[in-house]
Amino acid sequence: MNHGAYEYARDDDGDGIRKVHVNTIEGMWTSVRNFLRPFRGVHKRYLSQYVAMSELGINQKRITPKFISSIVALH
Fold first, then answer.
1. The whole model's pTM is what?
2. Which tops the pLDDT comparison, 29 or 5?
3. H or E element: which one contains 21?
4. N or C: which end of the chain has fewer CB within 10 A?
């Protein structure tokens, strides 16, 4: 995107809906922060693993038994 030309969102696929926004990454980090809040802080050594769990939850829209078993299998 070209912010110098006042372009802040783009319609890349031509369907008339602008889907590429500059706030996408900020929204993702807000989700990570909200995911981490109940833990009341995590050790920096394990932070990447917590972020990966949050990312998995963001990408997995529904929690299903298959989803839970795949997480347990990773442990």
1. 0.51
2. 29
3. strand 20-21
4. C
